[in-house]
Design brief:
single chain, alpha+beta, Jelly Rolls, five-stranded antiparallel β-sheet, 3 helices
Length: 137
């Protein structure tokens, strides 16, 4: 079995941002030479996430609004007692989750229709990383 590990780096312009990283992940897969296996894409920060869904802009707005309803910015979270102000960002990350595993078949990401990989930033404007690990033959 072969492995390749690479990192993507982000420094978003906004506090919350959704970045389609499918092309970046496909390029890493291509460089790996792996034809059959899987690829792990994982945010390395507790206020970010990675998910698979449709790349339709209305849906991305719906996802953002849903996360904001479930974990609104500003309430007096217990986490804020430590001097932090990003309790909502941690909760949004939990709701979105921090990683995905995508099958690799015949050297391609084995997606269903419309599926894309997104990096979700919930506490941006600073440098963050995502690890991409390709495993297979």
């Amino acid at each position: 079995m072969k492995f390749l590990t690479e990192y993507l780096t982000f420094n978003t312009q906004r506090h919350r941002e959704y970045v389609n990283i499918t092309g970046d992940v496909e390029e890493i897969l291509r460089r790996s030479g792996i034809r059959e296996g899987m690829i792990l894409v994982s945010a390395m920060h507790i206020t970010a996430g990675v998910y698979v869904n449709d790349a339709e802009s209305g849906l991305i707005e719906d996802i953002d609004e849903m996360l904001d309803r479930l974990a609104p910015q500003g309430p007096d979270y217990h986490h804020h007692r430590t001097g932090e102000d990003n309790g909502d960002s941690h909760l949004k990350s939990l709701l979105c989750h921090h990683e995905v595993i995508v099958p690799v078949t015949e050297g391609q990401l084995d997606f269903g229709p419309w599926q894309q990989i997104y990096y979700a930033e919930f506490d941006g404007k600073r440098r963050k990383r995502v690890v991409v690990k390709v495993m297979g033959e």
